Amino acid sequence: MPPGQTLTEKWPVLHYGPVPRFDAKTWEFRIFGNIETPLRLSWTEFQQLSRQKHTADMHCVTTWSKLDQMWEGVPFKVIVDLAKPKPDTGFVIAHSENGFTTNVPYEDCLKPNVLLATHANGAELTADHGYPLRLVVPHLYAWKSAKWLRGIEFSIVDKPGFWERNGYHNRGDPWTEERYWGD
Ligand SMILES: Nc1nc2c(c(=O)[nH]1)N[C@H]1C(S)=C(S)[C@@H](COP(=O)(O)O)O[C@H]1N2
Ligand SMILES: [Mo]
Asked: Which residues, in sequence order, are bridge partners of residue 117?
């Protein structure tokens, strides 16, 4: 366990704001920014992308950790191969419903267990946990694992997101307790 974390058996729900409704007819996924191939995918198209399963622990900055989450979804690498980010790409900005964003260094997104997940522990994500799609960056605090994901932006410059502008650390490594701004 990372320092200062406490094990939880149940899976807490944590986010700011309301749980959005999903409509497969109007949902689209945008891949944009500093890339060769901007794309918009419908829900049907998104579901045809290749998939993987990864088991990983989940660490929330409020000190709970949930071990051995089994995630299933589209590896971040699949998005990179479609998008073809330009060599000066430094950051990834995850865009979710209701304007929520979070920023992740590009190289953190290239770790093999970073997923755009549709399933957790063998079942479709529930609405509370991000249905139909969430980012999972297991080696950073869970606020980087944006629920209700609607797009991925590749950027040269960093763009701190919702929690990062509200006091959370810009990167959020649980092993070195990068919890809050100034840590
Ligand atoms: N869209 C969105 N995603 C979000 C958040 C949020 O406020 N909005 N909160 C984050 C935080 S702080 C945590 S700890 C995890 C919690 O995920 P869970 O509710 O599935 O446990 O979601 C993250 N993803
Ligand atoms: Mo969190």
From this structure: 73, 134
Q: Give helix then strand counts, H and E, for the chain.
A: 3, 11
Cα first-last separation, the chain = 19
Residue 15 lies inside a defined structural domain of this protein: no
Q: What CATH number is given to the structural domain containing 97?
A: 3.90.420.10
pLDDT one-digit tens code per residue, 51-88: 999 999 999 999 999 999 999 999 999 999 999 999 99
Q: What is the number of the ligand 1 atom nearest to the C-alpha of 96?
A: 1
Interval between CA 143 and ligand 1 midpoint (Å): 5
Centre of ligand 1 from the C-alpha of residue 36, in Å? 30
Q: Which two tokens stand for residue 73?
A: 């979804």
Number of domains in the chain: 1
What residues make up the domain containing 52?
A: 28-168
Q: Is residue 47 part of a domain?
A: yes
Give yes or no for residue 148 CB within 6 A of ligand 1. Answer: yes
Cα–Cα separations (whole angstroms), residue 107 to 25, 29, 77, 80: 33, 22, 11, 11
